[in-house]
Amino acid sequence: MNSAHPAVVIADPTPLVPCHVAVIMDGNGRWAKQRGRPRTAGHREGVKSVRAVVEASAKRGVRTLTLFAFSSENWQRPRSEVNILMELFMSALRGEVRRLNENDVRLRVIGDRSAFPERLQQRIHEAEELTGENTRLNLQVAANYGGRWDLTHAARRLAEDVQRGVLDPGAIDEQMLTSHLSFPDLPDPDLLIRTGGEQRLSNFVLWQSAYSELYFTDVLWPDFDAAAYHQALDDFARRQRRYGKLGEQVETTSHASARGRV
Ligand code: IPE
Ligand code: IPE
Ligand code: MG
Fold first, then answer.
1. Is residue 40 within 6 Å of ligand 1 at its C-beta?
2. Where are the domains of the chain?
3. ∠ CA 9-14-17 to the nearest 5 degrees?
4. Which end of the chain has fewer beta carbons closer than 10 Å to its terminal beta carbon, N or C?
5. 2, 12, 74, 138: which one is catalytic?
6. What pTM was estimated for this model as a whole?
7. Band of the pLDDT at 10, cuts 50, 70, 90?
8. CA 225 – CA 230 distance, rounded (Å)
9. 38 alpha carbon – ligand 1 mean position (Å)
10. What is the C-alpha separation between 196 and 213, in angstroms, rounded?
């Protein structure tokens, strides 16, 4: 190794590929409306984008992909739309799980599933069992998920432990709270993408997105294809993540050269 040009960097502050990508899949209704079709046509079309992004994630080396499919607030939509979303979820599980399993994808559903129809809960359970040992990609589908629900649920569990006398409130730290949230075993999202033009989190991963890089695009979810996804990943690779430090504290040789490669 040439000491004038150190090539080895122990911790690259900006790995080129995000370990965990989270996506707010928004814009299905508007996509359909633009074509004079019912909103549900947009939801159906959106399944194709899910396939494209799952496939591209596995190819590009993303280890975890979390997709926001249905929020805890989406129950407030018209009953007919909610019903169709539930049916679509059922049929997507039926149609996709075998292929996901063949492609070594582990599927997990996060959110309060107790509100779902019994049959759907059963199907989710079966899909998680079938794919539980897969390792190529962790695919998390957030359904009846809300960031506030996640935090409230964690707070309740901690309070129960205190009440049972097995936890000292003074021992509660950030790590312990994290360990009671929906995906304690996985890293926080590095990149959070929202399609459909809105620039808000809509109660998605609130705690876990503290240091996520945010990427907003006007592309509507059914139009979000592999190329659009690669554009978001390329944008991420040009970011500098500082976590409160100064730019020069995190800047490294490999970082600069990595940027040059993008
Ligand atoms: C996102 O698309 C899908 C869900 C929230 C289930 P929308 O249905 O919100 O589509 P827009 O935002 O109305 O276009
Ligand atoms: C966020 O989209 C939820 C999902 C994509 C599942 P919404 O369409 O529900 O968000 P708002 O209502 O515009 O904030
Ligand atoms: Mg929307």
1. no
2. 20-146+188-239
3. 110
4. N
5. 74
6. 0.92
7. very low
8. 9
9. 12
10. 17
> What is the rounded distance in angstroms from the CA atom of residue 55 to the CA atom of residue 96?
12
- Counting ligands in written order, the one closest to the CA of 40 is 1
For the chain, the residue count is: 262
Q: Is the shortest distance between the CB of 28 and ligand 1 below 6 Å?
A: yes
Q: What per-residue confidence (pLDDT) applies to 14?
A: 57
**Crossing angle between the packed helical segments 39-60 and 226-237, to the nearest 10 degrees:** 50
Q: What angle do CA 147, 120, 68 make, to 5 degrees?
A: 30
20-146+188-239 sits in which CATH class? Answer: alpha beta
pLDDT grade for 4, boundaries at 50, 70 and 90: very low
pLDDT one-digit tens code per residue, 185-235: 999 999 999 999 999 999 999 999 999 999 999 999 999 999 999 999 999
Tokens 């490999």 belong to residue: 254
